[in-house]
Design a protein that fits this description.
Distance between the termini: 59 Å
Structural class: mainly alpha
Number of strands: 0
Oligomer: single chain
Order of helices and strands: HHHHHHHH
Shape: elongated
Strand content: under 5%
């Protein structure tokens, strides 16, 4: 049985409808507070994938044993794919933001002064070329040494498998049922806002660079 199926199956139909009304109201109100990027296409795409993950997780766990094995297997695979890659993309975006900030700091503090201090014309050029090669290598090395792939992809994927495939833990009371569904909704809101905040930074940088070029 699904994570919430035993509790959901015991609820009277009236309580099921009332819970659906409540859940949708919370979803609508919560969506109003989710950060937006002001890019309608990106916001719609992000909202679509987040909603798809939420719907699949909520609905399949309510009636897991009544679904055909092939259908539920496909849905769980999609949910794990969306969840694991969603976290990986967000984690990688955070890493890129930190790496970009560190790279710019090094450029302004160590590389740029070489253009003004050195009397040899080749020194600034060589310094800049070395910087262009060393910066990406340093970022990749740090990414590997910190086992960032395991942190942002492997562990979240294994966690989703434990929950959605091995069904651990399961709801045993209505309180736990409500907590699990609302917690899933809250995680989706936090994820959407986090992705939007990071995306907005990169979009602003792109617009800033485009404005300067123009």
């Amino acid at each position: 049985m699904g994570l919430t199926e035993s509790v959901w199956g015991e609820l009277p139909e009236e309580r099921k409808i009332l819970w659906k009304y409540f859940f949708r109201c919370v979803s609508i109100v919560g969506a109003l507070f989710v950060t937006k990027t002001d890019n309608i296409y990106f916001d719609l795409l992000l909202g679509f994938f987040t909603a798809a993950f939420l719907i699949i997780v909520i609905e399949t766990q309510r009636s897991y044993s009544r679904l055909s094995p092939n259908f539920r297997k496909k849905n769980i695979r999609i949910a794990i794919f969306l969840g694991s890659w969603g976290v990986a993309i967000l984690g990688f975006a955070f890493f890129l933001q930190a790496a970009f900030t560190a790279t710019i700091t090094v450029f302004y503090s160590d590389v740029l002064p070489a253009f003004y201090r050195s009397q040899n014309e080749l020194t600034p050029i060589v310094t800049f070329l070395v910087f262009l090669v060393a910066a990406p290598i340093a970022c990749i090395r740090i990414f590997r040494e910190l086992n960032f792939k395991e942190f942002i992809y492997t562990n979240p994927r294994n966690g989703l498998k434990k929950i959605l495939i091995y069904k651990n833990p399961k709801a045993t009371s209505f309180f736990m049922f409500a907590y699990m569904e609302l917690f899933t909704l809250m995680i989706c809101f936090i994820y959407s806002s986090s992705v939007a905040i990071i995306a907005k930074v990169f979009l602003d940088l792109k617009n800033f660079a485009g404005g300067n070029v123009g």
